[in-house]
Amino acid sequence: MKAAVLEELKTIVVKDVPDPICEDGDVIVKVHACAICGTDLRTFNFGHRNIVLPHILGHEISGEIVEVGKNVNNFKVGDTVSVYPAIACNECDWCRRGYQVRCENTLQIGDELPGGFAQYVRIPEKGVKNGSLIAIPKNMDHKQAALAEPLGCVLNGQELSDIGLGDTVVIIGAGPIGCMHAMLAKAQGANKVIMADIKDERLELAKRVNADYYVNSSKENLLEKILEFNDGRKADVVIVACNVTKVVEDSLELLDWEGRLSIFAGMPKDNSMVTVDANIVHYKDIKLVGSYGSTYWQHVTALNLIKDGVLDIKNIITHELPLEDIDKGLELVRKGESLKVVVIPW
To answer: Which controlled-vocabulary keywords does the entry list (predicted)?
Structure first.
């Protein structure tokens, strides 16, 4: 099969590699779509603590089952599926509580295991048993189904931040994750959604999701614009969807009483420390929330939101590229000239 192999940092090569072997209990999925995540770009540039090169990246996957191993009874050849990439142990305390994302024994398709930037991907027996394959209708668009993975992560963040009816939500960072946050916040009943970024080009792309207001915070004072748009009130929720520590520090000043600050981006490992005014947190009942990954059920819920048309997720797909052009896709993401880039291996 053809696969995009990260041979070394900043060097990805599309080449022929052996097809994955379907052992007892395994399933082989023909990849119809695999979207590029910011994590893929970070791994491309800087590596990942759990990844040994050479390696096949890609964890936002949908496709069709082409082979099943012995004793696989709940899936068959021809089934179309979305892939939930985290394979948790389902034995630890967190797994038993339903929070597979917190499992310390997790194997991730695209991290420890070969991912979806290839024509086929193997789902090991443990993944088949533990929920890595979620059936989708045969007429569902695979490009959209692949986006259930990042949308599930966004859903996790919004559940932790308790976004709901009447909230004013400010999203800092107008990339694909910020756009998903805007769409989901409106669907959950937010009254006003304000998107901020420092690049006009990013904000122009983000207008695909119809937030209520867009602010270039390098040209306008964001707090003043929030007060203008929100009848003199600050925000109920601020979501930091960019990896800039100063944004986290400055965001506290944007929050009203009982505001929630969601940190939805990993910071550079050599510059991850922030200074927080504890008095603002204390006296204004502020909640600081971190968010990473998603549970199986959040992935399923995200898939249903897409399938049922609650969120028109296709609006944030700006590029579809063949596997041979994956390096171009990574460059589009690096330059911020895209929202979601979807790789089509066939």
So the answer is: Metal-binding, Oxidoreductase, Zinc
212 and 335 together in one domain = no
Q: In whole angstroms, give the CA distance from residue 310 to residue 214.
A: 22
* pTM assigned to the model: 0.95
> Taking Cα atoms as reference points, which of 240, 231, 279 lies closest to residue 260?
240
How far is it, in rounded angstroms, from Cα 305 to Cα 19? Answer: 33
> Is the Cβ–Cβ distance between 291 and 262 less than 8 Å?
yes
Q: Hunting for tokens 């399933």 — which residue is that?
A: 27
CB 302 within 8 A of CB 151: yes
pLDDT tens per residue across span 119-144: 999 999 999 998 999 999 999 999 99
| Residues across the chain | 346
Rounded to the nearest 5 degrees, what angle is found at the Cα of 335, between the Cα atoms of 242 and 199?
60
Pairing of strands 60-68, 80-83: antiparallel
Average pLDDT estimate for 306-311: 96
Domain count within the chain:
2
- 115 and 172 in a single domain? The answer is no
**Residue range of the domain that includes 71:** 2-146+312-344
DSSP state of 113: B
43 and 138 part of one domain: yes
295 in any annotated domain: no
* pLDDT surpassing 90 at residue 81: yes
Q: What are phi and psi of 302, to 5 degrees?
A: -60, -45
What's the farthest any 2 CA atoms get from each other in the chain?
A: 64
Dihedral pair phi/psi, residue 133, rounded to 5°: -110, 125
Let me know if residue 171 belongs to a domain: yes
Neighbour count for residue 339 (Cβ, 10 Å):
24
